[in-house]
From TrEMBL:
UniProt-listed InterPro entries: L-lactate/malate_DH (IPR001557), Lactate/malate_DH_C (IPR022383), Lactate/malate_DH_N (IPR001236), Lactate_DH/Glyco_Ohase_4_C (IPR015955), NAD(P)-bd_dom_sf (IPR036291)
Database matches in CDD domains: LDH_1
Protein name: L-lactate dehydrogenase A-like 6A
Lactate/malate dehydrogenase C-terminal domain segment(s): 175-332
A single GO BP: lactate metabolic process
Binding positions (NAD(+)): 39-44, 64, 125
Record key words, sorted: Membrane, NAD, Oxidoreductase, Transmembrane, Transmembrane helix
Organism: Dufourea novaeangliae
Superkingdom to which the source organism belongs: Eukaryota
Length: 348
C-alpha cells in the first residue's frame, strides 16, 4: 500500500504564520501615540520629520486635500522608517484618520512666498481653517491643537473658536522660533554657544514683536547689568539690530531659498514633545488671553512665556517688564486685535 507523501511545506502561502508564533494584531495596541499633521507642504513635512527623529509618534498621519502628495510624502519617509522607531506613517485626505490623535498640528495654508499681503493671507487661510478645523476636531476631540499657519496668533484664536476646545488645548507656535533666533544671533555676536544664552521675544509673531532685553542673560548674568541701554536707541553697541534680523528672517530665507521650514519644524516638534512627554518646558508660545492683561481689554492670542505640558498651556510665567517693554507690549496687542477684527463676525 502506498503512503501519501506529506507536503514539503504545510505553511506554503502563509509565511507570516510560519515565521511568527503570534500575529501582531493579537496584541493589545494601547500605547500608540498618534500625531496628525494637517498639510503636507514644506512646513508640514519638516514638522513630521522633526517629530519622527525625536521618536514621539508611533503613528504619524499627513492629511491634505492633495491626497497624492500626502501619500507620496508618507511613503518617501516610510522607506527609512526602520531608523525612526518603525512608526506607521500615513498620507490621506480622509479626516477620520485623525481619530484618537494626541496632537494635531496645523500647517495647511502656511505662507511659502513673499508675494502675499497679510490681509489676503489671513482671508485665504481663515477660509481653509473654517473647513479643516471642525473636520479634524470631530475625530480628535481630546487632542491638543498646535497652530503653525500664518498669521499664527489670529488663526490660533480662530481655531479655538472653530474647535470649541478649551483655550489651553489650542496653542500657537507664536514667537517660539523668534526667541530661538534672537538667542542664536546674540550667541553669534558674543562668540559663544546659543545654549548659554537666555532670550525671549513676546507678543505678536510679526513686526510688532517685543524682545525682552531686560531678561537677556548668559548663564544667569543679565546683559542689561553690563550695558544699561541694551536694545535701546541709545545703545552704543546697537544690539537692537538683532531684533530687526529676527523679524526679517522669514522673508530673507524665502527670498534666498524659496521657502522656510526647518526651524519651524524643529520648534513645533519641541512643543509636541512637551505635550506627549509632559516635560513642562517654559517657552514663548501663543496663548489665549481673556481681557488681555497687557493694556488692552480685548480677547486675543499672543505669545508670552508659558509652561507647556500634557494638557497644553498649563500656566503663564510672570515677568516684571520695564515700562518701555510694557508700552511695546500694549502696542503689539492692539495690532493683533485690529487685524483680528476682520474675522470676528464670522466667529460669532
Amino acid at each position: 500500500m502506498s503512503v501519501a507523501k506529506k507536503k514539503a511545506n504545510d505553511t506554503a502561502g502563509n509565511t507570516a504564520k510560519f515565521l511568527l508564533t503570534k500575529q501582531a494584531e493579537d496584541y493589545a495596541d494601547s500605547h500608540r501615540v498618534k500625531i496628525v499633521i494637517v498639510g503636507s507642504g514644506y512646513t508640514g513635512v519638516a514638522v513630521g520629520i522633526a517629530i519622527l527623529f525625536k521618536r514621539l509618534a508611533s503613528e504619524l498621519v499627513f492629511i491634505d486635500l492633495n491626497e497624492d502628495l500626502a501619500k507620496a510624502e508618507a511613503e518617501d519617509i516610510s522607506h527609512a522608517a526602520a531608523f525612526l522607531g518603525n512608526p506607521r506613517i500615513i498620507g490621506t485626505k480622509d479626516y477620520s484618520m485623525a481619530r484618537d490623535a494626541t496632537v494635531c498640528v496645523f500647517t495647511v495654508g502656511d505662507r511659502s512666498t513673499n508675494n502675499q499681503e497679510n490681509g489676503s493671507l489671513l482671508e485665504r487661510n481663515f477660509e481653509i481653517f473654517k473647513d479643516v478645523v471642525p473636520n479634524v476636531c470631530k475625530y480628535a476631540p481630546n487632542s491638543v491643537l498646535l497652530i503653525v499657519t500664518t498669521p499664527v496668533d489670529i488663526l490660533s484664536y480662530a481655531a479655538m473658536k472653530l474647535s470649541g476646545f478649551p483655550p489651553q488645548r489650542v496653542i500657537g507656535l507664536g514667537t517660539f522660533l523668534d526667541s530661538c533666533r534672537l538667542q542664536h544671533f546674540i550667541a553669534q555676536k558674543l562668540g559663544i554657544s546659543a545654549g548659554a544664552v537666555q532670550a525671549s521675544v513676546i507678543c505678536e509673531n510679526g513686526a510688532t514683536s517685543v524682545p525682552v532685553w531686560s531678561a537677556v542673560s548668559v548663564m544667569g548674568i543679565k546683559l542689561k547689568d553690563i550695558n544699561k541701554d541694551i536694545g535701546m536707541k541709545t545703545d552704543p553697541e546697537s544690539w537692537g539690530e538683532l531684533h530687526t534680523k529676527v523679524v526679517d528672517s522669514d522673508s530673507d530665507l524665502i527670498a534666498r531659498k524659496g521657502y522656510r521650514s526647518w526651524g519651524i519644524g524643529i520648534c513645533a516638534a519641541e512643543v509636541v514633545d512637551a505635550i506627549v512627554r509632559n516635560t513642562c518646558i517654559c517657552i514663548t508660545v501663543s496663548a489665549y488671553l481673556k481681557g488681555c492683561r497687557h493694556g488692552l481689554e480685548k480677547d486675543v492670542y499672543m505669545s508670552l512665556p508659558c509652561i507647556v505640558g500634557r494638557n497644553g498651556i498649563q500656566s503663564f510665567l510672570r515677568h516684571p517688564y520695564t515700562p518701555e517693554e510694557q508700552e511695546l507690549t500694549e502696542a503689539s496687542c492692539r495690532s493683533i486685535y485690529e487685524t483680528q477684527r476682520s474675522i470676528l463676525q464670522a466667529l460669532q
